[in-house]
Design goal:
The protein is built from 12 helices and 44 strands. With about 650 residues, it is mainly beta.
């Protein structure tokens, strides 16, 4: 890792009332100013102003911060860093930015100082606050972080409204002009804003640690921030001893929306890896029989919390090279003792070290190991957290390798602390984590690469109960909003598609409504280091396209976006070793998308191309597989059906 810090000259500083920071390529510009002794910021891309002067400040228990302010001497520097991601969309990352630290000092009592650190990258601007320990101020109680966003135009917005601070982050996306958005409703992040001349800006946060999660709210003609309050009250959001710091407030910006998808800005801003030995980490694909309701052959045993059901899925995983089999239980019964009312609420005596009597849990783990398959388990976060050390010791004894931690449903400061504790202790026990019923990621898979994925979105589990919002028109919002924050658990792999007009709710053996090629493409378009293969074995084996699903990796060396249009289509290319994989997903309008193979390395490649068949409007499971030889710079016309997609693998031709 390389880290360089040096003073710069030529930056704009006008009597400490106006501080300007430009990106390395000069296109992005962040200006921090004092207006009537209050700090405001402005953001521009080239000649286009995106955000007009917008206030910054805080509301503390002992009074507001943001009035009667003066700036101390700004310190400019460059920050150059190289690092490797154990799990990520880019293996080797080179991060280059310019930085300025500006002390913001109150000129009247209580004379507090808060430092704002601003970084400018070629694809983003970000700032955070440092609360240094100082005379007369050793701790704080914060009500809100008063960030406003005053747009210079009326951008098109891709937004997810949530019903309150306690929520699952599951819902449909709204895509409309900012002026047409509902006011006084919580908006989840990331949120995408498209300005005139096709300049894109997404707002989110990075390195969310020991702090409350942030939301956006439209108030009049501006956006304001809201922090998730402590559980059980509405005022206090953050309590901390000094020194302390906030997460980064991130503005991803480019005139090419694909650049936002390619960006590593959140991991650039996250703390370096805290796991000394990462050799034990093994991303991969997993069964998840809950989705199909534990379908097994009609034979001598019944599905349930038993050895034979799990053996059936372990054998399937072993035959097809899936790294993991997941155990959650059966019907409404977890795999462990729980006296709670159901999956969502852990009972007072829930015990993750006590498998239900009908399940030979150790026997399942031993059998999986004998077949080269690892076990991970579903569990309720509350059942885990109350006895985390004893549970993790038991998991190590059994040979469990990781877990889905579910029903968190909050991102207040306490829950953010709980998530980090789970990640830290899991790493000490060499266990991976899959957060479910959780808020968006913030780049911490760099800090704790044992976090393989997390939910924070409406996903394919909802096909089980027929959510009207599921389908390709929802999927296509993912690359342009939720996925800008990082990996997403999406419960993929439904191989029994029907035309939308024929869809019926099946809690067992759910149906899906997008094409087989759309489903294959999702495994590349979506970023996740524990991709699910959710359907039952007979739905896959012998089916066209399953050979592609079996072979696709889950971690990547590089990511490129050859073509994308917000809420219309996305074509994403990812490299693994010497091979390139390309996934395309489409919304409900058929189209042809031309792409150029500029991302390939020199030399010839063998292309395996999976495309929607001509009759997918009546049988969306049909696909066409063809093989051809291509080279860097060649052009392809991807014919994407309504709710369709494409999947490709490029292998270098041996010389």
């Amino acid at each position: 890792m390389a880290f360089t810090l040096m003073l710069l000259t030529g930056m704009t500083v006008q009597a400490q009332k106006n501080v300007q920071l430009n990106s390395p390529n000069g296109k992005l510009r962040f200006t921090l100013s004092l207006v009537d002794k209050s700090p405001v910021y402005k953001i521009a891309y080239g000649k286009q102003v995106l955000v007009e002067n917008s206030p910054l400040g805080f509301e503390f228990e002992n009074g507001k911060f943001g009035e009667n302010i003066k700036f101390g001497k700004p310190v400019f520097s460059t920050v150059d860093e190289t690092y490797d991601l154990v799990v990520g969309k880019t293996k080797h990352v080179v991060s280059h930015s310019k930085q300025v630290v500006v002390p913001m000092e109150e000129t009247v009592e209580p004379f507090r100082t808060i430092n704002i650190t601003i970084r400018a990258f070629d694809d983003a601007l970000a700032f955070r606050y440092d609360f240094p320990e100082q005379e007369g101020w050793s701790s704080y109680v914060m009500y809100n972080e008063n960030m406003e966003v005053n747009f210079a135009a009326d951008p098109q917005v891709l937004a997810l409204f949530v019903p309150g601070f306690i929520n699952t982050h599951e819902g449909p996306y709204t895509y409309k002009k900012f002026s047409e958005l509902d006011a006084q409703r919580l908006i989840d992040m990331p949120t995408l804003f498209e300005f005139p001349d096709h300049v894109f800006m997404a707002i989110t946060e990075a390195n969310l640690v020991d702090y409350a999660g942030m939301y956006l709210v439209k108030e009049g003609d501006k956006i304001v921030s809201r922090l998730s309050p402590k559980l059980g009250q509405t005022k206090i959001s953050v309590e901390a001893n000094l020194p302390h710091r906030s997460p980064w407030r991130v503005f991803m910006i480019s005139d090419r929306v694909g650049a936002l998808i390619e960006s590593n800005i959140l991991t650039n801003l996250a703390d370096p890896c805290k796991i000394e030995d990462t050799s034990w980490l093994k991303p991969g694909k997993t069964t998840f029989a809950w989705w199909n309701n534990n379908v097994v052959p009609d034979t001598t045993f019944q599905p349930g919390n038993n050895f034979l059901t799990n053996k059936y899925y372990i054998d399937f995983a072993a035959r097809n090279g899936l790294e993991y089999h997941s155990i959650y239980g059966y019907a409404d019964m977890p795999w462990y003792y729980d006296d709670g009312p159901g999956f969502g609420l852990a009972g007072p005596n829930a015990d993750l070290t006590r498998p239900v009597p009908v399940l030979d849990f150790k026997g399942v783990c031993d059998y999986a190991k004998s077949q080269g398959v690892d076990i991970h388990v579903w569990l309720n976060w509350a059942a885990l957290y109350k006895d985390i050390d004893r549970v993790f010791d038991k998991f190590n004894e059994w040979g469990v390798k990781g877990m889905m931690v579910d029903f968190m449903d909050r991102d207040d400061q306490e829950m953010i602390r709980i998530q980090e504790t789970i990640l830290k202790k899991a790493a000490e026990h060499k266990l991976f984590i899959q957060f479910h019923g959780a808020s968006k990621p913030s780049g911490l898979h760099r800090t704790y690469p044992n976090e393989f994925t997390r939910e924070g979105t409406l996903n394919y589990e909802c096909y089980k109960w027929g959510d009207k919002n599921m389908g390709a028109d929802h999927d296509i919002s993912m690359p342009f909003a939720r996925l800008l924050a990082g990996p997403a658990d999406y419960h993929m792999g439904g191989f029994r598609a029907v035309p939308r007009s024929e869809y019926k709710i099946h809690y067992s053996s759910p149906l899906v409504t997008s094409t087989r090629c759309h489903m294959l493409g999702m495994y590349i378009v979506l970023e996740s280091y524990l991709n699910m293969v959710c359907d039952y074995p007979e739905a896959y084996e012998g089916q066209p396209g399953f050979e592609f699903l079996r072979e696709i990796p889950t971690t990547w060396d590089a990511t490129v976006v050859p073509a994308a249009e917000v809420n219309q289509y996305a074509v994403i290319a990812r490299k693994h070793g010497n091979d390139w994989y390309v996934g395309a997903i489409n919304n409900s309008t058929a189209r042809t998308v031309p792409i150029t193979l500029d991302f390939l390395d020199d030399g010839e490649y063998t292309l395996e191309l999976y495309s929607d068949a001509e009759d997918v409007d009546v049988n969306p499971n049909h696909l066409v597989k063809e093989t051809r030889t291509v080279s860097k710079g060649d052009k392809l016309d991807l014919k994407l059906a309504a709710e369709g997609g494409s999947a490709m693998r490029f292998r270098p031709v041996a010389k």
